Amino acid sequence: MSALPAAPRFSDPGVFGRVAVLMGGTSAEREVSLDSGRNVLEALRSRGIDAFAVDGIPALVEAIRAGGVDRVFNILHGNRGGGEDGVLQGLLDALGVPYTGPGVLGSALTMDKIRTKQVWMAEGLPTPGFARLAAGEDLVAAARALGLPVFVKPSCEGSSVGVFRILGEQDLAAAAEFAAGYDGELLMERMVQGPEFTVGILGDLALPSIRIEPAGEWYDYHAKYVADDTRYICPGMEGEEEAEIGRLALAAFRAAGCSGWGRVDVMRDRETGLQLIEVNTAPGMTSHSLVPKAAAELGVDFASLCWLILEQTLPEQTRVEGREGGAHA
Question: Would you identify the family this protein belongs to, as annotated (predicted)?
């Protein structure tokens, strides 16, 4: 059984001031971000927080210049106009505006799947073997050298954008066609033969794991955001195995320079055991999303989860109504 999250430090929504819920943007994950953002905005307002929606980074800059932002709940997914690649975090650090989620280092590093895996390997943490493909590199030759089956995915995208599952030679053509028109690095990763899990992180706590069982052959974009027949089993493991996956997820999160909240995706290979896949530093908060499901297993409803995440933007010694908070910022 996972530990319970710490109780909220504050009950007065006024402690947060005016909160910009940052969503949308121009990344490939815009629509998912808008869905997440609407849910977060509704949840914060339901708890009396003075929250408002902001679509994209330029609009946020204007709102900050106008003096109307005390802190940011970042639910902007992806890069290239998203909020998970460190650019937003550096901007807000420079402007002195607190925000949810990891800082510059953790955000920038984990947006790049290849370099995240390199850090994990240096730390002795388990992750599937991989090949790094520069733009224009021969994907077919790389797949044959690494050995099928493999997954191919952009190193710096999320939400299963541009992911190819290559089981045999017949699957190479479609992936090679995508690679020929893609201008960034691609990650080619040995396919894990076994079940898929995810572990939400809230501060220093690993939430209960979730075992993901899609109705189809794999957990693609449709299974994540559209289908209603994907099964989510929480907790995904029991006893010492559940404790082990929680410890591994926390270690992976911290090794990648992350703090605050996020989600670590893990798979269990039939031969090599638990294998780290990637980190999400602004996880989805849609009706299909996994961090809210895991929090609910501990009795934390969606609005309370959003409150706890937003509390992470408050400094350790925030004085409200004559008392001080004592948790970490």
Answer: Belongs to the D-alanine--D-alanine ligase family.
